[in-house]
Design a protein that fits this description.
The complex is a heterodimer of chains A (about 550) and B (about 500).
Chain A (H helix, E strand, L loop, with lengths): L1 H16 L3 H5 L3 H10 L17 H18 L23 H12 L20 H11 L8 H10 L4 H16 L24 H10 L2 H14 L1 H11 L5 H10 L9 H7 L5 H12 L5 H13 E4 L6 E4 L7 H5 L12 H11 L4 H6 L5 H6 L7 H14 L3 H8 L15 H8 L4 H15 L5 H5 L7 H16 L8 H10 L5 H4 L16 H27 L1
Antiparallel strand pairs in A: 1-2
Chain B lengths: L5 H5 L18 H5 L5 H9 L6 E6 L4 E6 L7 E6 L4 E4 L9 H12 L5 E2 L4 H18 L2 H7 L5 H32 L4 H4 L2 H12 L3 H13 L6 H20 L6 H11 L10 E15 L2 E10 L5 E9 L13 E8 L7 E11 L13 H9 L7 E14 L2 E6 L8 H4 L9 E3 L2 H4 L2 H10 L4 E8 L2 E8 L15 E3 L2
Parallel strand pairs in B: 1-5, 8-10
Antiparallel strand pairs in B: 1-2, 2-3, 3-4, 6-7, 6-9, 7-8, 9-10, 11-12, 11-14, 12-13, 14-15, 15-16
Classes of the chains: A mainly alpha (about 550), B alpha+beta (about 500).
Protein name (chain A): HEAT repeat domain-containing protein
Organism (chain A): Streptomyces rubiginosohelvolus
InterPro entries (chain A): DUF5691 (IPR043746)
């Protein structure tokens, strides 16, 4: 086959170099290159001792063309390198087609600039990726292979996406990440890349526990704990004395889920651990068990400090903070040295109350309910200290009665309530309540106080927001618009609403998208921006509804 | 509409030859994004691809889509797209083409069919659509008489013009020969010092000589100098081929007709599609744009199911406008193609379209081991070819020292000396992936699709390696479509 093309070279070259091209053509390629590089004047392209062609450059080019075409026409395939190990199979079903297109769309928008300037009326697609991934993972779909690179790039840029994105990417995603240094992050940290042995195989579990890497062992302990809490304790106990202090701390943390009275003997023993952090964590876990001996010891100490004072017309609470922090208290997890700026007696008191089972107080105050106790006056300015400690106790012991009492009524002025005024504490207390109660508490709070402090509270509410809560938020936004401020003063809540409002609310919201007449006291142009913001809200809700429907198909 | 020709009768297509009666393929998100003239439009269009700003959206059976898009002003923009063209019209002032509104509208349609109720076009859309259809009917109406009437008014004058141009090209080729000879006499090493000036000036001379093909090759020579290890070898190769083209032009009278036509095309003389039209079920394999100076070149690769031909549609657009021609990748269109003349010529022009289906499935492929010979064979007809299209079946992407390879999944024991030098421990064949493709995101899509297993890949095999353009997802098989029936994924 090469002679077809080479004949082109020679026949067309005959005009100038017929007599010499044949001998130049027989020169090795390397000599042609040397001659070309140095110039035919200095190094003529001719065999050693042979005749120098009359038109050396043309002869050289003829020969080069011949060589080039001949080489290209005679190319051979390369020898293959070692193949990569194939990716583990992914048995999850493929995405419905519409959902696959949607994901491509969401990921394509990722690189678009966001945050800068006005947001316009179009939804912010990037913000919907977490929700899309959550639904897809819940439904157990397999990620389309062609979108894995874009998905990994998205997870690389946004750490908050990583857990969901990597779960969705599955074994093929991990396999791919192993081949590209840009996606190293996917293989780090959590042992999600390593396959868990079947938890039903005790030998495999024991072997991984004995020989695994730290991250693998933590993941294994968590998995066993989730399935069979006592088995996890047994597993941990087999190697406990030989573990390093920081590892013991992490493993102890794994016991937080599925905590029960069965864990008490082990935890009680850990109170004498060599490491102070391990001791503190063991004490914290024990204090979350109201029946535990530690809780009893703490209750006895706390009761000696806090008692009802019936001397006045109404019962009040008298507080006598502890005078010392003895060795027993320290063994039970009380930290002796307070942080800078805090008195040590109030510091000790806080820790005692925090670790005391809340039920103890109802008994101590003559069978009063939590809300009645919280409402009692407290002597000598101890109220803040005491209530804050009760809040921490309610959160630690996950006690809804006390949480409710300490939250107070949502409509009351923020500062005058009996419980805590701190929004951070309130959001923690709200998390203890069941989702319906949580939503209606926040709804009432927003109805009474508006949106300025609602952001953190909304963050703990279940998505999508329950009907009354959604309506309260929308009403408050509507009021804020009538108040004449700009919508970006509420961009945080607006963004949350886009992601969390029930998509079914879209139709009801439609009326708000109409531009309103400018009011006299309103900020200039605010009306237009508000209608734009509501349009974005509505279109985002519509998009979420479509997204969800596609994944449910 | 023209009466069915003999070509139509051969295909058992139910005699359907009206574009309005044919099923209209709905474009996917990827396909729509491929229409965008640049990255900024793609982003802007993506933002508009949701129901928010849209109202009055609708579509009809002939492939028209329209809607009103709310912008910053009080009146919404009127956007209408004829997806059979595709052609776009929008009342916005954007110079981008298609504008972000047209892209947004198509994206909305791709992802949310519910927003498009089949309807009669709105008045404003109907006006444009009717004008467009009338124009189309005028153009295709007197089909038989039209072709001859379109010819030059004065054949003698046209011949004189062509002769004058050939003379100028000959002058250019001779000058280029002289310059190449001077270069070789002084040595290629000197080009490392003289920089780009020499090549740019020579290229400008070739433009003056009306030989844009020669000019483009000269410009490429300028980029080779100092382009990494081995550049003198590459430069000598390309100088040799340029010299070959020069001398071929100067001696074109003695060349066989197909080769002479190839030389004319390579030199850059205008040629028009003139071969007999080929009607077939054409599978759209890939579509991608490459910037070429101030214009954008769009390549669309097609594979004819019946004829087994691979064809290339080449179109151009000014900067900021994407070329008008666009076809949805993965679709199969029933259409006529008119090939361009010349040996080893794949370029063709799209003629009448009779319909579209979405059934995919790759062309029958070959093994990696056989691919270099396919390129070698193609060099017979056109020694200036850099690469030749091929579909590789059952190949696995494998990381190698300085890049990636595509290795045959089913290794055949090799007997050539090349394999023995490696101790015979590894058998089978592989093709290195061309350097140009190594930095594209498409490479990782290909690796992801493979997952370490065999995939079918369409691309070009050439002396730089294999450049993948599209692959078929082996994991997303459509029911009953066999082992390679998954959707096609574009890699460029």
């Amino acid at each position: 086959m090469p002679h077809t093309t080479s004949s082109t070279a020679t026949t067309t070259g005959t005009t100038t170099t017929a007599s010499t091209s044949a001998s130049v053509g027989s020169l090795p390629w390397e000599e042609l290159v040397t001659s070309a590089l140095l110039g035919t004047d200095r190094r003529p392209p001719a065999p050693r001792g042979g005749p120098v062609p009359a038109d050396a450059p043309a002869a050289l080019l003829d020969a080069a063309a011949l060589h080039t075409v001949r080489r290209r026409a005679g190319l051979l395939p390369a020898v293959p390198e070692a193949r990569p190990e194939p990716a583990a199979p992914d048995p999850r079903p493929a995405l419905p087609e519409a959902a696959r297109h949607r994901l491509a769309h969401l990921l394509a928008d990722r690189s678009a600039p966001s945050g800068g300037g006005r947001r316009g009326t179009a939804p912010d697609l990037t913000e919907l990726i977490p929700q899309w991934l959550a639904i897809a993972n819940r439904r157990g779909f397999r990620a389309p292979a062609a979108l894995l690179p874009a998905l990994l790039d998205a997870a690389r840029a946004r750490t908050d996406l990583r857990p969901q994105a990597l779960a969705f990417a599955g074994p093929r995603g991990m396999w791919l990440a192993g081949l590209n240094p840009d996606w190293k992050f996917a293989l780090r940290g959590s042992a999600s890349g390593t396959p868990q042995p079947g938890l039903t195989d005790p030998d495999a579990v024991a072997r991984l526990w004995e020989e695994g890497l730290f991250a693998e062992r933590v993941a294994l302990l968590d998995a066993v704990r989730a399935q069979d809490p006592p088995a996890a304790l047994t597993l941990l106990a087999t190697t406990w004395p030989t573990e390093r202090a920081e590892d013991r701390l992490m493993f102890l943390d794994s016991l937080r889920s599925g905590l029960s009275g069965a864990d008490e003997p082990f935890l009680e023993q850990a109170l004498s651990d060599r490491s102070r952090n391990v001791r503190a964590t063991a004490a914290e876990l024990l204090s979350a068990l109201p029946e535990s001996a530690l809780a009893g010891r703490m209750a006895a100490r706390a009761l000696s400090c806090v008692h009802p004072d019936r001397t006045g017309a109404v019962t009040s609470i008298a507080v006598e903070a502890p005078h010392e922090c003895d060795a027993d208290m320290q063994r039970d997890g009380v930290t002796a040295v307070p942080p800078t700026g805090r008195g040590e007696r109030s510091w000790w008191l806080g820790q005692l109350v925090e670790a005391t089972p809340l039920g103890v107080w109802e008994e101590r105050f003559g069978g009063r309910a939590a809300d009645e106790i919280v409402a009692l006056p407290v002597a000598d300015d101890w109220a803040d200290e005491l209530h804050t400690a009760w809040c921490r106790a309610a959160v630690r012991q996950r006690n809804p009665r006390w949480s409710r009492a300490l939250l107070g009524r949502p409509s009351e002025p923020v500062a005058s309530g009996p419980g805590t005024a701190s929004i951070a504490e309130r959001s923690k207390l709200l998390a203890i309540l069941d989702e319906g109660e949580r939503a209606s508490w926040v709804a009432e709070f927003i109805a009474a106080h508006g949106l300025s402090e609602a952001f953190q509270l909304l963050g703990v509410c279940t998505v999508p927001w329950a009907g009354p809560l959604g309506r309260a938020v929308v009403d408050a936004l509507d009021i804020a618009r009538d108040g004449g401020s700009y919508p970006w003063s509420f961009s945080g809540v607006m963004g949350l609403a886009e992601r969390c409002l029930d998509p079914a609310e879209a139709d009801r919201l439609e009326v708000l998208t109409a531009a309103q007449d400018e009011q006299e006291d309103a900020s200039p142009g605010a009306g237009g921006y508000w209608s734009e913001a509501f349009q974005r809200l509505v279109s985002t809700l519509r998009l979420r509804a479509a997204m969800e429907a596609e994944l449910m198909a | 509409m023209a009466p069915p020709t003999v070509g139509d009768m051969q295909l058992s297509h139910g005699g359907e030859s009206s574009p309005t009666g044919a099923p209209v393929a709905r474009w996917s998100v990827e396909q729509v994004l491929a229409l965008a003239p640049d990255a900024a439009s793609r982003k802007a269009g993506t933002r508009l691809g949701a129901a928010g700003p849209w109202s009055g959206t609708g579509s009809d059976a002939s492939g028209a889509v329209w809607g009103l898009c709310k912008g910053s002003g009080s009146t919404p923009y009127r956007t209408v797209v004829d997806t059979t063209g595709p052609a776009y019209a929008c009342s916005c002032p954007s110079r981008k083409f298609p504008c972000k509104h047209a892209l947004g509208l198509l994206l909305l349609r791709a992802s949310d069919d519910g927003a498009f109720r089949p309807a009669e076009p709105a008045d404003w859309a109907e006006e444009w659509l009717a004008g467009r259809r009338a124009r189309a009917a005028r153009e295709s109406g007197p089909a038989a008489g039209g072709d001859s009437a379109r010819g030059p008014a004065d054949p003698a004058a046209a011949r004189r013009r062509a002769e004058r141009r050939a003379e100028r090209v000959t002058g250019g080729a001779q000058e280029l020969e002289q310059r190449l000879a001077d270069l070789l006499r002084g040595g290629l090493a000197a080009t490392d010092r003289s920089g780009y000036g020499l090549w740019e000036e020579t290229a400008a001379r070739m433009v003056d000589a009306q030989a844009p093909g020669l000019a483009a090759r000269v410009r490429e020579l300028g980029a080779i100098t100092g382009s990494g290890p081995g550049w003198p070898v590459r430069l000598l190769e390309e100088c040799g081929l340029l010299h070959l083209l020069d001398t071929a032009w100067l001696g074109r009278d003695r060349l066989p007709d197909p080769l002479a036509a190839t030389v004319r095309t390579r030199v850059g003389l205008p040629v028009s599609a003139e071969g007999p039209p080929v009607r077939d079920q054409w599978l759209v394999l890939a579509q991608y744009d490459t910037p070429d100076g101030k214009i954008v070149a769009r390549r669309i690769w097609l594979y004819g199911r019946g004829s087994g031909r691979t064809a290339l549609l080449l179109s151009f657009g000014a900067a900021g406008r994407s070329p008008a021609q666009a076809l949805p990748v993965g679709a199969t269109i029933d259409a006529e193609l008119t090939p361009y003349p010349g040996g080893g010529q794949l370029r063709a022009e799209l003629g009448e379209q009779f319909g579209a289906t979405t059934s995919a499935g790759p062309p029958p492929g070959i093994a990696a081991a056989a691919a270099p010979a396919v390129y070698g064979n193609a060099l017979r007809d056109d020694p200036w070819l850099d690469a030749w299209p091929a579909t590789l079946r059952d190949v696995i992407p494998v990381p190698s020292k300085d890049g990636w390879q595509l290795a045959d999944a089913h290794a055949v024991a090799r007997t050539d000396a090349h394999a023995e030098t490696h101790g015979g421990t590894r058998t089978g064949s592989a093709l290195p992936i061309a350097p140009a493709a190594l930095s594209r995101p498409g490479l990782w899509k290909l690796v992801a699709l493979s997952g370490g297993g065999p995939v079918t890949v369409f691309g070009e095999i050439g002396h730089r390696g294999f450049e993948p353009f599209a692959a078929w997802d082996p994991g997303e098989e459509e029911e009953g479509a066999g082992t390679t029936g998954g959707p096609v994924v574009q890699l460029v």
